[in-house]
Amino acid sequence: MLHLDQDAEFHNYGYGIQTMRVKAIFFAPFRELFGADEINVDLDGTPNVKSLLDLLCNSNTLREKIFNEFDELRSDLTVLKNGRSIQTINGVQTELEEGDEIAIFPPIAGG
Fold first, then answer.
1. CA 41 to chain centre
2. Helices (H), the chain
């Protein structure tokens, strides 16, 4: 079972299942959409960035901001694992490890 508590943490209370904790960090309008600057998430199994984002996007509104109509990460977003773009690792299939920090940036416009 997954749980979001008042300290902005997801917990996966599996029975006898090894879990790991990662931190999702949100910037600009994502802070308001996700209701926090950051969320600590306990995951089990062999999670990747996609499974983390699937877990965090628990409403249609959030899914539309993160994924396109093909359920792929929107190309105008920037997602970093420990400061490194996931596009230079393995995209949304990038595996997560204990203590990883996943930063999610909205589209950046300017001129």
1. 9
2. 29-34, 49-56, 60-66
Q: pTM for the whole thing?
A: 0.83
d(CA 20, CA 3): 15
Domain segments of the chain: what residues? 2-105
Tens-binned pLDDT, residue by residue, of the chain (111 aa):
334 443 545 555 555 567 899 999 999 999 999 999 999 999 988 999 999 999 999 999 999 999 999 999 999 999 999 999 999 999 999 999 999 999 999 988 766
Q: Which CATH number fits domain 2-105: 3.10.20.30, 3.40.50.720, 1.10.3720.10, 3.10.105.10?
A: 3.10.20.30
Q: How far is Cα 41 from Cα 19, in angstroms, rounded to an integer?
A: 10
HSE (side-chain half, CA atoms, 13 Å) at 65: 22
DSSP state letter for 108 = -
